[in-house]
Amino acid sequence: MEHFVYRDQKKLRLGYTTGACAAAAAKAAARMLLGGEKIRQTTLMTPRGILFTAAIEQIKITCDMVSCAVRKDAGDDHDVTDGVYIYACVTRTDSGFTVDGGEGVGRVTRPGLDQPVGSAAINSVPRRMIIEEMRQAADDYGYEGGLKVIISVPDGASIARRTMNAKLGIEGGISILGTSGIVEPMSEAALVDTIRAQISMYCAQGLKDLIVTPGNYGETFLSRELGLDLEHTVKCSNFIGDTIDMAYEFGLDSILLVGHLGKLVKLGSGIMNTHSRYADGRMETLASCVLLAGLDAPLAVRMLACNTTDEAVGILVAEGCLKEVMEQLMIKTARALRQRASDGSYIEAVVFSNKYGVLGMTDGAERLMELHRRRA
Q1: pTM of the full predicted structure?
Q2: Burial degree of 349 (CB within 10 A; 0-12, 13-18, 19+)
């Protein structure tokens, strides 16, 4: 039975995580090894409470090993692992139930992630699911020995190059993930979890001062124009408020937020998720800054008529008042950021445009930039 979720007035089909696929493959392989008969389909209950029915493919059976695969179905989510085969190879051991990664499953190389350094990047929930399925198979067949499973993804190394794994310190392949077993299309939770994992990793390395940027524009600008190292940067996408909350959660000393005006202008109105479906307010914020700078109302009205912040900046440059307006924006931005941070991390911001470079900074931003340059 298929399950659906509604996002932005669209009906989208749910999918299944790499962890659920690995657990289904391990279940089938263990039962074929102990029962001696091929299994073409298996079911398991995901942590979300949705029953997963998986077709079992690529079956190989010998006297002491069974290998099989489940093809990942991400539903309507644009997942880089959609359609790949997740393999499980199960063998007998003297005792216990163990899980490891093989070809295409990454290895953890830095502390602070879900698994310790040196372990396969198979997170704790999928590990638990896999072990429970193998243990249940042993009980059902009256088997008193142990079982070992190797999870592999032959295409994993190439797929991993399109993920955040290298940045997180996971090398050689993808991660086997999923706390619910279910992939929700357009889910924000997965993105927020990636940000949390990255901050956790940096903190485990003793790094308490981080640079945060919404995306590729920010990374390019802070490297080429500001001379800052990308080694300790975190991409927060639209989740600026959530990232500030995580800074408090992990006890960071400071955050330097670097971003394009098109996104960060929204902070001036206290908008902490900058995706357009939550709020816009870009031109309204700029119009208020025009008035706060003591400029005339017609100029504020011209801000409201602009389609992009680049267009608005062009008008302010032509009118010779960009500096004054940006000063007001940075005052409003600093206030909003510090209210969100509360008693937590020291947070500063740098706002830029691709055409005009740095447009404004909060009061302590230069000090944080110097801190990061010294540590580079």
Answers
A1: 0.77
A2: buried
